[in-house]
Amino acid sequence: MLRKDTKRLLPSSVKATEAAKFNAMAAEWRNPSGAFKVVHAFNATRLEWLFKKLESTLRHQQKVLDVGCATGLVSEAFAQRGHTVKGIDVAERNITIARTCAQKAGLTIDYQLEAPEETAATTPAAYDIVLALEVVEHVEDLEAFLDAVFRCVTPQGTVVLATLNRTWLSWVIGIVMAEYVLRWLPKGTHSWHHFVTPKQLDAAAARHSLSCVAQTGITFNPIRWRWQTTRSLAVNYMKLYRRV
Questions:
Q1: How many Å apart are CA 170 and CA 157, to the nearest integer?
Q2: Binning pLDDT at 50, 70 and 90, where does residue 149 land?
Q3: What are phi and psi of 210, to 5 degrees?
Q4: CB atoms closer than 10 angstroms to residue 24
Q5: What is the residue extent of each domain of the chain?
Q6: Which range (83-92, 113-122, 141-150, 190-199) has the least confidence?
Q7: Helix (H) or strand (E) holding 130
């Protein structure tokens, strides 16, 4: 149940029911053997690809904004590499847990109970790298959310978006298999109708004069029993945007 979230006017992109759902799930995010153990393995593959693509950029200290940071798995990975990180989320318990974990790890990360519209209003064009990973499929107003995300990045910066494509295959794998058959995720984690196509992300980026400079799909290999990158964007995928 939401507490502080319901005491303030939520930006239009925030879906209160989703915030409440992730508040309830918050404690499980940090358990590598718990309900989200598959997320930990998925996250490792995702970060490996991302750090490789950002290698030249990350040679210098970057200001990073992690939108929908949950309990801080990605924020911590960037902070451990010496970058200045701010993590924002609309689920209060996520932020509480993220702050505790960062403190235990000796990391300085600015975690705030905040939506990207609020960040864009107070510190526009302030971040060298803006991440919104596996969050766009959970928002109320996609256009408002993406507009805010893109307004947070510097003119020479990079925006990274990761989500699930809206295809029949993503319904089979991302919901039926992941939530009901293999039970990798709690039932009801995702709604197929809120999955986002690559064209939708590209169109939003183009309105801010950004273009896709790199992309990958991420799939599970049942033979090797591990996550790996793929050319197909039919299910999980990531896209990097910059001004070209």
A1: 30
A2: very high
A3: -110, 150
A4: 14
A5: 4-242
A6: 190-199
A7: strand 127-133
Query: Among 217, 173, 227, which Cα is nearest to 45's?
Result: 227
CATH code at 4-242: 3.40.50.150
> Which H or E run includes 40?
helix 37-53
Are 202 and 212 in contact, with CB atoms under 8 Å apart?
yes
Using DSSP, how many helices (H) and how many strands (E) does the chain show? 8, 8
Q: How confident is the model at residue 3 (pLDDT cuts 50, 70, 90)?
A: very low
Q: Report whether pLDDT(184) > 80.
A: no
pTM assigned to the model: 0.90
Task: Report d(CA 194, CA 140) in Å as an integer.
Answer: 9
Residue 133 CB-density burial (10 A; 0-12 exposed, 13-18 middle, 19+ buried): buried
How large is the average pLDDT for residues 128-140? 96
Q: Check if the beta carbon of residue 190 is closer than 8 Å to that of residue 218.
A: no
What are the structure tokens assigned to 166, written together?
Answer: 């809206």
Q: Per-residue pLDDT tens for 63-76?
A: 999 999 999 999 99
How far does CA 191 lie from the centroid of its chain? 16
Q: Token match 């319904």: residue?
A: 171
